[in-house]
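At this stage, I wrote out one protein, both as residues and as discrete backbone shape codes, and that material follows here.
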Amino acid sequence: MITRKLPITLGVVMIVLLIVLIVGWVFLSVFGAITQQRSAPFYWTVLSVGTVLYILLLVGVSLYLALSVKAINLNRRQSNFIASVTHELKSPIASMKLYLQTLNRHQMPPEQQADFHRSMLEDVERLDHLVDQVLDAGRVETAPEPADFENIPLHDVLLDCAETICLRYRVDRQVVRTQLEPCLVRARRGDLDMIFRNLIDNAVKYAGSPPEVEVRLTRSDNNRAIVCVEDNGRGIPPAMRRKVFGRFVRLGKELQRDRPGTGLGLYIVRTLVGRMRGKVRALDRPQGEGTVFEVELPAVRETQA
């Protein structure tokens, strides 16, 4: 709410400053013309006040321009999000409608009916995933209660997330290789699931052919849990590696993408990791094309486990 009102407040303040400047300079000119000689203390006082107001006006214009550019970018991302969600909703619905109409009008062999049912189930799962992601984006805005936190085995969470994503995309479990050290973190299980489901989902979705995804968990000397999710996809341009964590941000043009998505996954990851006093960043793959998402979280000391 404050962010929405700021441009309006700033605009009103700049208008008031401009009016004060105009009145002040007119008054100064009239005063000088009447007296035919300017009183030095009064003249320099008005000149100083006018200069300060002029500087404030310039600062206000700069801030207003920055806020306007930010609003334009947000509107563009929201338009992309609406186009993406519309496509994500219509595609599976149209597909299920076609399958149901075909089953209703034609007598199909049992094998083909089983294929149709399997395809419709995939469409339902796709819709369910979309709804979950939109709901997750809304939930991350709510701060959790301290009582909700517990010591969670992070290695178990990563294994469960890898299994879930492999089942979702119907790929062999060996596609997501894991190298995990036992490690505890203090968090909510649901938050950890959202973070690493999104990262592993992106890794599998954008991986190359054949897909290669690796998830590594290590514990640093300063008692931090380091998780790296690596894929062999096309990678992320350096200029976009910070921007991709923004809300509704996706690479490329919405209608030209060949992968489904809403632009909310990495925003959810960044928000939750930051809430846990952790860090997340996108890096180049050490060898070959691809991306590495590195998440750093505070680990539970062994004496506290």
